[in-house]
Amino acid sequence: MSDRPLLLTPGPLTTADAVRAAAGLDHGSRDPLFVAQSDEVRARLAGLVGDPAEWAAVPLQGSGTFAVEAALGTLVGPSDHLLVVINGAYGKRMVQIMERIGRTVSSVAFPEETPVDPAAIDAALAANPSISHVAVVHCETTTGVLNPLAEVADVVGRHGRRLIVDAMSAFGAVALPDDLSTFDAVLASSNKCLEGIPGIGFVIARRAALMDAQGNSPSLALDLYDQLVRFDKDGQWRFTPPVQVLSALHAAIIAHAAEGGVAGRGARYRENLSVLVGGLRALGFETLLPDAVQAPIIVTFLAPEDPAWDFGAFYDALRDRGFAIYPGKLTERDTFRVGCIGQVFPEDLRRFVEAVRAVVVALGLTTLAPAA
Ligand SMILES: *Cc1c(COP(=O)(O)O)cnc(C)c1O
User: Fold this and answer.
1) Which tens digits make up the pLDDT trace of 120-147?
2) 3-state secondary structure of 251
3) pTM over 0.90
């Protein structure tokens, strides 16, 4: 078995040697070198959304969900009302967070295998004037579906509400809309399309929205307002920063820029997607989603109808050949997922398709088409 399989997952991902090497250096958290690195990471993250004078990046210790919980608790105050747009597990998680912290939440839900529908959001906002904010997931990693963010933002803007976007799995590879006037925050993490190592979630928020949010957060550790004030004062994290993770993220962001930023990285992932989907379809597998709504992040394949199909055996056989895939996350249908993000290149996906071909033979799978 390969010691270091290629991770074809939604994160943590296969990372570059330079990124892991950057994590191999210790820094003191008050050391000027670390503070400068942290400043640069924050400025570059903000710059991926807009003018760093208008947008502030607030990184936090933890995984992406920590940033989601921090953003909702800080930006949606006790007298506000959040509408969560759901078409998968990550939308549902935002509702759970709001319920747990005792803030007002409603939701509008769509089937997992379709993008969210701006017209239904329009109707929900028209029917409920108390809704102040809308939260939506850019790429729902549950299935890999890409939501129509520009159209959603447009509807939110027409109703004069504010938008919070969980862009976790798409940030750095799928462009944000040109018009961000209704956006209050974009949320992501170190270990997805920026290709860093796990340990930092971050919120890139409109500075004015955060400055209005003093006292909102029900959590001390997750208070983005407090952390921004501290960054503004002396560049320090309030609590022990994940220094090695930050250094790795610094190296990863420089590599991202060198690859051509969002456009360059997105182009590689789209090519990965095309090799992956073309290759597995040629073998007889089918995707859950039509190409038009598939994000170049992770692909859900339908499990074959063949009675010999067993995800565990399929996983193990691919793992033996050096590839780690991901289980499906749908409640209704048996599926598996394959990611196209990370330090993974079209030639890797070609090797993966060949490995799948060999595994299909080895496992004696004859019917790869899914059950009707
Ligand atoms: C990965 C991800 C998250 C955060 O998940 P963690 O396990 O906390 O890192 C949130 N939303 C989406 C859409 C994601 O893909």
Assistant:
1) 999 999 999 999 999 999 999 999 999 9
2) helix
3) yes
What is the spatial distance between Cα 274 and Cα 277, in angstroms, rounded to a whole number?
5
DSSP secondary structure, 16-37, as one string? -HHHHHHTTS---TT-HHHHHH
The tokens for 177 are: 């809309």
Instruction: Looking at the CA of residue 68, tell me the nearest atom of ligand 1.
Output: 10
Mutate to test the pocket of ligand 1, among 69, 140, 141 (most ligand atoms within 8 A of CB): 141
Backbone torsion region of residue 260, taken as left when φ is above 0, otherwise alpha when ψ lies between -120 and 50, otherwise beta = left
CA gap 326, 295 in Å, rounded: 16
Q: Is 63 in the pocket of ligand 1 (CB under 6 A)?
A: yes
For the residues of 138-154, what is the DSSP string, one character each? SEETTTTEEP-HHHHHH
Beta carbon of 64 within 6 Å of any ligand 1 atom: yes
Q: Is 65 in the pocket of ligand 1 (CB under 6 A)?
A: yes
Closest CA to 238 of 247, 248, 229: 229
Burial 212-243 (b: 16+ CB within 10 A, else e): ebeebbeeeebbbbbbbebbeeeeebeeebbb
